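User: Second chain of the day. Same drill as before.
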Amino acid sequence: MPDESQISKFEMQLDRKLHAMELYYQHEDKPDYQEIIVNSKPRIEVTYSGNYNDTTTYLILEFSMQKEHFKKIIHDKTKFEKNLTIDINNHCFSNISDEIVEKVALELENDDGNDWRLQSGQKQNIEIKDNTIIKRIWGDDYRFRFFLSHKSDVKAETHRLKENLEKWGVSCFVAHDCRWHSKLVQSWHFKLVHTKWYSE
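Assistant: Same format as last time:
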């Protein structure tokens, strides 16, 4: 069984191997594949078969792609992954005998700087801007805020929890207590806290 903590031979030669694949796709006039190789960030995960007699190191090769490139291949993603797996195994392992790429995965690159939900135009973010309503719900002082949801049969216990948390400087809004409840539930600005009696 291979040691998953070790760097694979393929990974040690990764940049040279990908350059070879880029030249291969250039020669074969496959610009879509060439674009994937050149414009993505590769990452290798080492896996194993689970069979102690199998000394082969199995690799998952992930290509992280920017949104613009990912959108071009998304409808044929499975086809690209399958063909890349075949081509890389056929052309990159002439000097490596005990490793194989089990799977190529094409993934969308993380974009931590942008809110993709907001950019989609589909995000619904209901925000209450009326200060009178906000003060009525939370009080005048700025404190840590909790939105308490509960089952109807533990309403009294939830109100006691609210009163006890007030003593510790926590402002609570109890669900179902006002006509703005439905809007508040849909808002992303409230942290839901379930009482210990809330089981579903």
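Residues 188-200 have pLDDT under 50 and may be disordered.

User: Great, on to the next one.
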